Amino acid sequence: MILIIKHIDIEGPGTLGDFLKNRKEPFLINDLGAGGQIPADPRIFKAVVVLGGPMNVDEEKSFPFLKPENDFIQKVLEAEVPYLGICLGVQLLAKAAGTKVVRSPVKEIGWYKIQLTSDGKKDPLFKGFCPQDPVYQWHGDMFQIPSNGKLLATSEGCPHQALRVGKNAYGLQFHIEVTDKSIKEWCDAYRATDLPGRRDHAGAMLETYWKVKSSFDRQANVLYQNFLDIMQLHC
Question: In the annotation, is 187 catalytic?
């Protein structure tokens, strides 16, 4: 069983959930924002996936679940349970591994290209990945690299885009799980804080989504399958 941790209703597993269903890979969604409880022992799961959210990793007073979640991710790292963090999920990974999350040089919202580092080109997570195709971004923060971490991808506006900690804990600053529904919901929910005065931005992002959907979904499936392969090696 794969554990998927959510932080807010509108940031769910999206295409990752569809992929796992198609592969008949069982998973459990734990919505912390809706009162879900952190499991005591991560070793009962084949892997742990942590999704995004609008909160900062240090907002533990406003979001009390963040402290036990940090403790849980530290247990995941200690037990070497395969981990995949997306956006907030990679920032939580970095914090659990002992480093800081800072403001990104550029607040990325929309479609951007990333570049693989030399370590990223060799890493099994990015086998078959094509960095020429854009990925979807929605973040204002950026993780730093912990002492036992490797930077796997970068971009012009945000130099830290993908991370590996230890053998099999991964994080992506960008979103690979989004659908058109996700983009619409995020624009509606975060417009006041992230898109003030930019009423056309949602339409532009959705127009690009439909243009790149085929390649974007293919890229996401490549990363999902690679992560499953990594997971199987450590089961």
Answer: no
Q: What's the number of CA atoms in the CB half-sphere (13 Å) around residue 228?
A: 18
Residue type at 27?
Answer: F
Task: Encode pLDDT of 20-68 as tens digits.
Answer: 999 999 999 999 999 999 999 999 999 999 999 999 999 999 999 999 9
CA–CA dist 77, 234 (Å, integer): 13
160 is catalytic: no
Q: Give the single-character DSSP code of 154.
A: E
End-to-end CA distance of the chain: 11
- What CATH topology corresponds to 2-233? Rossmann fold (3.40.50)
Domain residue ranges in the chain: 2-233
CA-wise closest residue to 25 among 9, 8, 49: 49
Q: Which of 87, 108, 160, 187 is catalytic?
A: 87
Active site residue 177: yes
